[in-house]
């Protein structure tokens, strides 16, 4: 089944981490620097890959639950603020776009699609990553997890884009890698395609019954 129907779409929404770019190693690097500063035990890259995608605050909660067995609010705030200072200063050392992404975005530009990055990552590092990778020019906006009082899986960031860019639900398509993306799109009434290579909090993406899974977004250009 191909739900893409790209010719009918005018608005394409893309998740960032795990969909457009592989950013896990930089998050892992920054978190372990942070833990070193706070004299806390290190975590592994695989653990980080399982924990990311739900926003920085929940990422820090997962780290503390693993290390301490629970969450103490003052310690959580300290970890969060220290991590953001370290990560935001240099969020794109090893982060790279996934295979096929640049080619697909070029197709989007050539076919006059409006493209927006909608991520749970705070807006500052999200924009910085896209700028460093010279990907920022593809997107008319970057909606970060701190833009609104809610983030994915709440549908608000997606519905904001539909309204702001004068589209409609049936002419909008979401690309993601996690249950957050699938649920946000489902609640918004927007079709969603997920990539098989993403993070999805360490869980099988099939479990959230996405409409369509692709190994490479370029597959959609030949259908």
What does the main sheet amount to? 6 strands, parallel
What's the CATH C level of the largest domain? Alpha Beta
Strand content: 5-15%
Instruction: Please identify which CATH superfamily of the largest domain we are dealing with.
Output: HAD superfamily/HAD-like
Order of strands in the sheet with most strands = 5-4-1-6-7-8
Provide the structure class.
alpha/beta
Gross CATH architecture of the largest domain: 3-Layer(aba) Sandwich
Q: Which secondary structure elements does this structure contain, and how are they paired or packed?
A:
Layout: E1 11-14, E2 21-22, H1 24-37, H2 45-51, H3 56-68, H4 73-89, E3 96-97, H5 101-110, E4 114-118, H6 123-132, E5 141-143, H7 156-164, E6 172-176, H8 179-188, E7 191-195, E8 212-214
Parallel strand pairs: 1-4, 1-6, 4-5, 6-7, 7-8
Antiparallel strand pairs: 2-3
Helix pairs in contact: 1-4, 3-4
């Amino acid at each position: 089944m191909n739900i893409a129907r790209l010719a009918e779409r005018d608005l394409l929404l893309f998740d960032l981490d795990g969909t457009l770019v592989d950013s896990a190693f930089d998050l892992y690097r920054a978190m372990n620097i942070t833990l070193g500063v706070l004299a806390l035990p290190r975590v592994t890259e695989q653990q980080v890959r399982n924990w990311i995608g739900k926003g920085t605050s929940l990422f820090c909660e997962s780290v503390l639950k693993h290390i301490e067995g629970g969450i103490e609010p003052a310690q959580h705030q300290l970890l969060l603020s220290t991590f953001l200072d370290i990560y935001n200063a240099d969020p794109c050392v090893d982060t790279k776009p996934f295979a096929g992404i640049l080619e697909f975005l070029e197709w989007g530009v050539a076919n006059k699609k409006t493209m927006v990055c909608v991520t749970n990552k705070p807006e500052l590092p999200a924009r910085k990553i896209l700028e460093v990778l010279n990907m920022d020019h593809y997107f008319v906006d970057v909606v970060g997890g701190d833009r609104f009082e809610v983030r994915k899986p709440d549908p608000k960031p997606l519905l904001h884009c539909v309204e702001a860019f004068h589209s409609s639900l049936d002419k909008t398509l979401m690309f993601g890698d996690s249950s957050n993306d699938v649920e946000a799109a489902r609640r918004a009434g927007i079709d969603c395609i997920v990539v098989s290579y993403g993070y999805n909090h360490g869980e099988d993406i099939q479990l959230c019954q996405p409409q369509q899974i692709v190994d490479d977004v370029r597959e959609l250009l030949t259908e």
